[in-house]
Here is the input.
Amino acid sequence: MRALTYHGPFDIRVESIPDPQPFDAEGAIVAVRACGICGSDLHIYEGHGFSADLGFCVGHEAVGEVVAVGAAVSRFGVGDSVLVSASVGCNACGPCRAGYVLGCERGRSGCYGLGAVLPGSQAEFVSVPAADGNLVLIPDGVSDDAALVLTDNAPTAWYGARRARIEPGDVVAVIGLGPVGIMSVLASQIMGASRVLAIDLVDERRAAAAALGAEPVDGDPRLAVREMTGGRGANVVLEAVGADATIDLAMKIAARGARVSVVGVNQSNAFPVHMALAQFKELEFSIGLCSVQRELPTLLALTQSGRLHPEVVVTHHLPLSEGPAAYERFHARADGVGKIVLDPSR
Ligand code: NAD
Ligand code: ZN
Here is the structure.
């Protein structure tokens, strides 16, 4: 099959690799109709990824059709239209049964395409372990673009916003307006934020957030947020970048008693916390990885009822064969690029 593979920093290739086989009787094979490039893939692209492996198939966002199921798969059959949850669990232990796959008690928590262990889905086919727990039927009325954003970006944003316990009337600042940040803007609005202040280095991304009802923060965000909030700061800060500078900024633009919630993946393990500032402000700080399965029931319902439009982050549809150029474009954040959706049939 045709697949995108990682060969070192800034070296993504279109290659022909063997078709994946089911992991075991609980596994399934999905023919991918559409797959997305995520900000987490950019960490790999930049060479500070999640493993030292080379040559593996990348990607963890996919929707498609089930083409094979193992004998122990009971909830899915050939022909089902599914979204492949980016996070993976065992589907047998208590936490996984409850959708909390990050807490898998059998050590099977994972994500596709971060290394060779669980090959990715930027390909014609993807092998799904414990399919009953890691696939979700795409309900009527949910488009492939929406379903693709529901595999990872929308649940991540919802999870971050949920952990910040956004309440009606909160003034929320979102730092980073890639697909995860834009979804964080929408999540904040649905949860009742009175104002959403949108921060990013890229003008077009601030404009995209403004078009959805957020207030773009122009200039130095510390000064601007202070000015925009009468000196108080934001009650809630959602960080969707994954860098020391932006976690630091989150604490600095936070109001007294604010909740700071981080979903950006930061590979730096030596982040200096400004202890006095955090303590003086009585900040609540949360950080984590999203268990997609736990967030999806709510998000599918919101999407089906028309309250949430995850597809708004999609800006480009390109053939998988143009994958390397697509990575370059998403990385450059130029020309209004947001979520890029790849078509493995082309
Ligand atoms: P992205 O790269 O498109 O978005 C990041 C945005 O941050 C960009 O728009 C960029 O311009 C902006 N940015 C960078 N430095 C900045 C700065 N100093 N100040 C303000 N803005 C700045 O990526 P994405 O797909 O939206 O993903 C965002 C993050 O979420 C990534 O770190 C990704 O790894 C992470 N992520 C986490 C989870 C999870 O479960 N926790 C899941 C998916 C993605
Ligand atoms: Zn992702």
Remarks:
- The first helix runs from residue 39 to 45.
- Residues 2-152+291-343 form a domain with the Quinone Oxidoreductase; Chain A, domain 1 fold (CATH 3.90.180.10).
- The two ends are 12 Å apart (CA to CA).
